[in-house]
Each structure stands twice: as C-alpha cells, then as structure tokens.
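Supplementary Text 2. Reproducibility record for the structural model of the 277-residue chain.

All settings were left at their defaults, and a single model was retained for analysis rather than an ensemble. We include the record here because the model underlies the residue-level annotations in Supplementary Table 4.
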Amino acid sequence: MPVSLSAFDLAYDELRARWPESTEERDVATPYGRTRVHVYGPADGSPLVLLPGGSATGLVWFANAPALGGRYRVHAVDLLGDAGRTERRGTPLKNADDLTAWLDALLDGLGLDRTHLCGHSYGAWMAVGYALHAPQRVDRLALVDPTQVFAGFRPGYLLRALPTLIRPSRARTRAFLAWETADTHPDETWQRLYALATTVPGRKLIAGTRPRAAGLRMPVLVLLAGRGRAHDAAKVADRARRTLPRGEVALLPEATHHSLPLTEPKELNDRLMDFLG
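Retained model, structure tokens:
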C-alpha cells in the first residue's frame, strides 16, 4: 500500500535541513503548476540549474550545493510529474514537448535568459532534450550518468527495477537500491526519501525517444559511474565521444548510478566546476 504523504513530507523536510542555512525555497508559477526550486549561492553568481534523477527530488544535490554554491547561483529543481513539492496543475503533462515547455516557463520565472544546465539520470535525458530545444539558453551542459541518451538500460537492471515499477513499496525500492549501490553507502535520509517517493500516488514520469545528442553544439561534459549497473559505462563513453562535437567524457570509478550525485561528491564537484569555469 502507498504510504501517507505525511511520511514523505517528514523525510523531505529532514533532507532539506541538510542544505546550507541560507538556501531559499522558491515556488515558480508555470502553466503546468508551481515548481519548487531550492536556490543557493551568490546572487551575482553564474546560474546553474540542477535536474535530479527520477524519485530523487531536487534535494538530492545537498552534498554538492555547498561547493557549487560557493561559485554559482544553484537552482535545484523538483521535477514536474515526480514526487516532491512541484505541483501538477493547469496544462496537462502529456509528453516530452510539455517538459521542454515547462522548463522554458521555469527559466522565465527564475529570470534566467541563459544558464549552465546539469542533470543526473532521467534529469540528464530531460536536460539534453531541453538543450536541443533551446540551445540559446544553455551555456554549458553537464550530464551525470545519463540514461536513455547514448545507450539503453542493461536488461539485468530493468529486471531488477521492474518490481519497484509494477508494485512499488519501500521494501522493494530499498532492496533495489542496496543492489545497485553496493558498498557505496548513500546517505540514509536520502534513501528513505527515495523509497517513499516511489510510492507517492499520482507520479507521472514522461518517457520519450532517445534524443539526437549529435545536435548539441554547446560544450558538454559526461560523467559516468564506473561501477554503475544501469548501463555499460564503457559503451556509453565510447558513443558519447563519437557523438558529441564538443564533448568531454570522464569516469567516476567508484560511483554507481544511484549513489550519484551525493556519495563522495568531491570528485564530481571538482570536475563539474573545472568544466563550467
């Protein structure tokens, strides 16, 4: 049975407390509903929009925000259609075009004509689609273990994930996380929030075709989990290098797909800041 939203809200607030004290909460009006954005960093810093993986919420970047927010104005987003505090009201969410239209409206509401954009997993797929849609608004694009961009999922990963999709429960999701993140020990509060997120009623994650990443003309960084089980990192790296006109590919050797971006974040933060400049 799905858990009550109050349990999710308690876990959400507990993880929110891990963000720096000066973090601002913004609810940005869009035609699809109000979008929750966690904002941290100097008001005059270059903007950096962070899109999380599915079920992770924008709070997943709590271990990255202190470093990134020392240089950039960080905007970590709760995704439309996913668990979190972004509402789904007004214009119906139907397809990938709605996601790009939502991101257009979100950037308008944040006052960002142009920004760095970084996404993890499903958020990376979404970021690529947006960068192809509105390249004039994306300065540099960073993709953290992107899924469904350069290669599909491993069959074994899908088989393990299937029970959490068909009959989601905290126990099934925690078992799946334990398998994929073995020996990396992701933050316990975040794991609890992730497991609760998969049981929140009404979630609607939009699936779409693989984007034509060869059309990306801005600088692109691809960071891959060396021990990830979602896909073959070597295959993804090879395809990314052959596909991206201005691509840079690096391996995070000890990371798994779901332990990113929060576990041992220093290498990810350093590589990301070196890339963004």
